[in-house]
Amino acid sequence: MQINMQHLVFKTSQVRERELEAAASLSVSPAQLMQRAAQSCLAALERQQPAPARVMILCGPGNNGGDGWVLARLASAAGYRVQVVATEPKTALAKQAATAWRQQQGSVEPLDKLDRTHLAEQDVIVDALLGTGLSRELDELYQCVVETLNDAKDFHKLWVLSIDCPTGLQSDTGVPMPVAVEADYTVTMVALKPGLLTGKAAHFTGHLELAELGIAPAFRQLEKPVATLIEQDEVMRLLPPRSRSSHKGQHGHVVIVGGNVGMSGAVILAGRAALRSGCGKVSVLTHPQSQQIVAMAQPELMVQSTAAEDQQAIQDFLKRADCVVLGPGLGDDKWGQRLTQAVLLSGRPMVVDADGLNLLSRHDEWWPAHEHLWLTPHPGEAGRLLGITTTEVEQDRWQAVQKLTAKSQAHVVLKGSGSLIAQAQSPRIRVCRRGTPALAVGGSGDVLSGIVGSLVAQKLPAEAILPCAVWLHAVAAEHAAKGGERGTLPSDLLEPLRKLVNP
């Protein structure tokens, strides 16, 4: 049976505890597994930096270092000019690999003598120091080596390949401990690990490649993934062509609630995104001073203002909605607070973002008592909801999104590089690896909340809404940023978004 491991995510402990068992079931020895790992790295090296490039391989004491020793022999045979810098190997496999390198007269320099002069003489640096499973901060030697490598990389334009995981990066959380190798390319073995996919990970891993080493079917039978990547095919299946006889009433009605004084742009962006992602009708409930601005900005939006005191009128207005998006430009003054209370009592399916989340964080009694709830916090908003700091959220994004789901019983996306999606009904997290730094600008979240609300109103399956919306948002941003990441505006996502929802 063919198993596709390219979209499945497993904890480091799962791989460590089961990879040899999986290999043994296929009559693959540990030495053969190490050989396959090194061959995968050589293939990546040959694609990116052809021989006779000068290659320095930094080998640590364990089996990650063993991969490096084997790679040294393979790369030398392939025509590379190879230099090994290493600590003494400690595992049996690493010792065997080191002996084989020395027997062919391969040179070795001690790791504690490494300096920028040595590094500057190379074209490629291979990081085979520690790999996965780092559970404490780097000691003084490794921290010094990592910092020296990163400095030399920037100054001398070195190309860096990390084996399995950049040294110093915690492979389950993606947090540097306290520093990590800034690789251009990482080949990770057997399965994708959580810490390589979210938060700061992309800065350290560079291009991430999975080498299954020929044991994927056996490993998959032994372990269940903790997360899955969102794939294009999955999203496209949710957006089939529409019936030629369809009408607007079949494609949902979203009400965007927000747009306090001076913040009308947020509801405009959210409303436009809801329209561009296929919603049949989009209304905006906004501040009296914003009503004319919103109406003039987008004629397709139906705009109503409210003074927030007329709770019954608000309830009557929201009864028309298939979904309410609460938060874009809402503010947290008296108007925003009164409006939030009224909306949360409406019982409508709801997306909560921005100041809607901030107000919920201060008023636990306002939480909606129904399951049709989607939350879209960035790390700062997530921290406020959980009563912790933004830094604590980023220290373990996986745990944070699970805690948010448990607290809210909602569908939750923790935004950021490698957005994470969790749902109370499922223990498995979804991961979006798509996106671009172009999204790091005010208004991007308003576009996402509009897309989410639109898909809720169009009655996509509840568990599919956030994966679909987050992927559309990320890929639309990639298209919008083709002319340059700096200066890309959230409104630039709207035309690519229209194309993506019409496959």
What is this structure, in a nutshell?
This protein has 503 residues and is α/β, with parallel strands linked by helices. The protein has helices at residues 12-25, 30-48, 63-77, 92-103, 116-120, 140-156, 201-205, 216-222, 232-237, 264-276, 291-297, 311-318, 334-344, 354-362, 379-386, 390-395, 397-408, 444-457, 462-480, 494-500; strands spanning 8-9, 54-59, 81-86, 108-110, 124-128, 159-163, 185-189, 207-211, 227-229, 253-257, 281-286, 302-305, 323-326, 350-352, 373-375, 411-414, 419-423, 426-432.
Distance between the termini: 30 Å
- Structurally, the number of domains stands at 2
Note the main sheet. Answer: 11 strands, mixed
Shape: elongated
CATH architecture assignment name of the largest domain: 3-Layer(aba) Sandwich
- For this structure, what is the CATH homologous superfamily of the largest domain? Ribokinase
Features of the shown structure:
503 residues; alpha/beta; Rossmann fold; UDP-N-acetylmuramoyl-L-alanine:D-glutamate ligase; 2 domains; eleven-stranded mixed beta sheet; seven-stranded parallel beta sheet; 16% strand
Itemize the secondary structure elements and their pairings.
Blueprint: E1 8-9, H1 12-25, H2 30-48, E2 54-59, H3 63-77, E3 81-86, H4 92-103, E4 108-110, H5 116-120, E5 124-128, H6 140-156, E6 159-163, E7 185-189, H7 201-205, E8 207-211, H8 216-222, E9 227-229, H9 232-237, E10 253-257, H10 264-276, E11 281-286, H11 291-297, E12 302-305, H12 311-318, E13 323-326, H13 334-344, E14 350-352, H14 354-362, E15 373-375, H15 379-386, H16 390-395, H17 397-408, E16 411-414, E17 419-423, E18 426-432, H18 444-457, H19 462-480, H20 494-500
Parallel strand pairs: 2-3, 2-5, 3-4, 5-6, 6-7, 7-8, 9-18, 10-11, 10-13, 11-12, 13-14, 14-15, 15-16
Antiparallel strand pairs: 1-9, 16-17, 17-18
